[in-house]
Write a structure and sequence with these properties.
The complex is a heterodimer of chains A (601) and B (40).
Chain A lengths: L5 H16 L4 H11 L2 H6 L20 H36 L2 H35 L1 H10 L1 H23 L7 H33 L14 H5 L4 H30 L3 H22 L2 H15 L1 H8 L4 H25 L7 H21 L9 H7 L13 H24 L2 E2 L5 H28 L3 H6 L1 H22 L4 E2 L10 H27 L4 E3 L3 E2 L10 H28 L13
Chain B lengths: L2 H29 L9
Classes of the chains: A mainly alpha (601), B mainly alpha (40).
Chain lengths: 601, 40
């Protein structure tokens, strides 16, 4: 029997108590002001952003404030991404179960949400720790931000209660709200849970993007009183889109790791089959969100450039450029591991032999594109090496270091990942339509023309035009990729309509190494989010709020990449340990011990 | 190779898809105030 976890209540109390301790009782006062005073009077009641000195940053027990806030924020964000994403695809899986009346979907959705329940408590605790550490270590910054975002912070706390309520009824009422109208009520609760969770994310995104692209304030940081202007700042929507998509991919990868863990520890054949199926679905979710993710990231980076060229250049052309090489390696790892899992999974079908001969070619293309993606533009060289090379750029590999080459590579990787998925989908089917040859010919032509177009745009506009054309050509590249994927999947669904099955799918017939690909996916995602999150925050450099509130703490400098990577890696290890704890708790909660002779008969 | 059943549809589809992608490129570049072919 599952019981409500008191730890969540403690986490909530910590967060709300922290609000009260910090003296944010100005919510009521602000509301009164809004009603009573004219806009001009309200505007004049705000102070400029404070000019800080090192004395404004308390030192507590010798703790490095930047590292403390950094690690708490990162851990909170990883868990928050997970618990916000899981209900999204749980909702979708539950709806699929209702439509198909296949109870396996309902059971799987329940198991996914069960994993996220413990993670939810940890998210709340880490949120409380982050809040306390911000108040203690950066009191002036927190006071300034809470003046501007007082209303949204208040609603954030209220929404947190609403989310907890919806989540608890959704989870604990799962078996109660079954069948007919009750099931619809349950699904609606899932929708409410997602709406509240997404709103919470949007509010928190506004606070962090305000620090990068402040709005609703003047040059001195005096708040105009327009809270919406501060929320709806320049980078708010790009971050919203990027995080929403990334969270789903990340949530998919973490539950995929859970399924892999359960698969490897399962002893019964039926149990292995169940967790194999669960792992496949988790990987499918992760891939679906992974495919548009580079585009969302590119859009965010382009908007950062558009807002501040200095921030943009620092991002990919300055000190953080080499972290993008690590990013490329990690994203390549994500694509390779997701594809590898699909290829291994084809072994579940006896009909997969027809397609396995093509896998080596997909692998060659993926590795080739991966190598192009992480080829650096400018090498870190000694003087002797520079002289030997004749400059900082390699004559042959140097051209692969610029963005058009990367864009071409990532689009090709995405198309070939979609191709892997299509082969997987076809593996157990035999088409029965009369026009199957013509349909296949059209699909091959669509892929060929699409790839040719991506190469043309990448090579011609990337190397024989100017910067404006280079950037502009990335949009038709993206659209080509999307058209190829959507077009081929649509056509495939017509070709394989009323198709025969080769035989029953053998769930559980997958090598154990495929499960390690799922672990790799989760670890690579985690590390990637940590490193890229550091970059996003770090490009503000010595500003708390860009160009408005300067960081005067002893840590107001950009650390070396090695140091930053170490901090993120330590945080990732802590997170993974906590995730293992979550998996273990989920396992323990379904274990029973029969203490013979212990209880009175 | 089955010329009629495969090659002919492939060739026709390749021409059609190629033309469609070029039209898409032109339209998107035009929307950004640029032409498909670069002029200094």
């Amino acid at each position: 029997m599952n019981r409500p976890r008191p730890i969540l209540g403690i986490g909530l109390a910590l967060a709300v108590g922290a609000f009260a301790l910090a003296g944010f009782d100005q919510f009521g006062a602000l509301a009164a002001e809004h009603e009573a005073a004219a806009d001009a009077i309200v505007a004049s009641s705000y102070s400029p952003a404070p000019k800080l000195t090192a004395a404004d940053y308390p030192t507590i027990a010798g703790v490095n404030s930047r590292v403390a806030v950094w690690i708490f924020a990162q851990l909170h964000l990883w868990f928050a991404a997970f618990v916000l994403a899981v209900p999204i695809f749980v909702f979708i899986i539950e709806a699929i179960g209702m439509r198909t009346r296949d109870k396996r979907y309902d059971d799987m959705a329940y198991e996914f949400i069960k994993v996220s329940i413990t993670a939810y408590s940890l998210t709340a605790i880490l949120g409380g720790l982050l809040l306390f550490s911000l108040i203690l270590f950066y009191p002036q910054l927190f006071t300034y931000l809470s003046t501007i975002f007082s209303e949204s912070m208040f609603y954030y706390a209220l929404l947190f209660f609403a989310e907890s309520t919806a989540l608890y009824i959704y989870y604990y009422g799962w078996h109660w709200l079954q069948g007919g109208f009750k099931k619809w009520v349950h699904l609606t609760l899932g929708l409410v849970l997602n709406a509240v969770g997404t709103t919470i994310m949007l509010l928190a995104n506004a606070w962090l993007t305000f620090m990068m692209s402040p709005a609703g304030v003047d040059a001195a940081g005096v708040f105009s009183g327009d809270a919406w202007a501060a929320i709806h700042n320049f980078l708010w929507n790009p971050i919203n889109i990027h995080r929403f998509v990334a969270n789903i991919a990340y949530g998919g990868s973490i539950v995929g790791a859970y399924a892999a863990f359960k698969f490897l520890t399962a002893t019964a054949r039926q149990e292995r089959a169940h967790y194999d199926w669960m792992g496949y679905n988790a990987n499918f979710i992760a891939i679906c969100a992974l495919l548009p993710l580079p585009f969302a990231g590119y859009y965010l980076a382009a908007e950062i450039y558009a807002y501040s060229q200095q921030m943009g250049i620092t991002l990919m052309g300055g000190i953080f450029a080499w972290l993008f090489i690590i990013q490329a390696v990690l994203i390549g790892t994500l694509f390779l591991s997701a594809n590898y899992y699909l290829w291994c999974g084809m072994g579940r079908s006896d009909g997969a032999k027809r397609y396995t001969k093509y896998i080596k070619y997909i692998a060659i293309v993926l590795v080739g594109a991966f190598l192009v993606w992480f080829t650096p533009h400018t090498l870190v060289l000694t003087n002797e090496e520079l002289k030997a090379l004749g400059g900082p750029h390699h004559k042959i590999l140097g051209p692969l270091g610029i963005m058009p080459a990367k864009n071409t590579a990532v689009n090709v990787m995405i198309i070939f990942t979609a191709l892997s998925f299509m082969f997987y989908r076809r593996a157990n089917k035999i088409a029965t339509v009369t026009w199957v040859k013509a349909g296949n010919a059209f699909q091959v032509a669509l892929y060929t023309a699409g790839i040719a177009n991506i190469m043309f745009l990448g090579i011609y506009h990337g190397y024989f035009t100017n910067t404006v054309y280079k950037v502009a050509a990335s949009i038709p590249q993206v659209l080509t990729t999307l058209l190829v994927i959507v077009g081929s999947i649509t056509l495939d669904s017509f070709i394989y309509r009323s198709a025969k099955e080769v035989g029953p799918l053998h769930w559980g017939r997958i090598p154990e190494r495929a499960q390690y690909a799922l672990f790799l996916l989760a670890v690579a995602f985690t590390w990637l989010m940590g490193l890229m999150g550091y970059i996003r925050s770090g490009i503000r450099q010595h500003w708390h709020v860009l160009d408005i509130m300067r960081d005067a703490s002893p840590d107001a400098f950009t650390p070396t990449l090695g140091y930053a990577a170490n901090v993120v890696s330590v945080a990732a290890i802590i997170f993974m340990a906590m995730v293992i704890f979550v998996f273990w708790i989920a396992q323990v909660s379904s274990s029973k011990t029969l203490p013979a002779g212990y209880w009175k008969e | 190779m089955d010329t009629k059943g495969y090659l002919v549809p492939f060739a026709a589809a390749l021409v059609a898809c190629g033309a469609a992608f070029l039209l898409l490129d032109m339209a998107v570049m035009n929307m950004q105030g640029l032409s498909l072919i670069f002029h200094k």
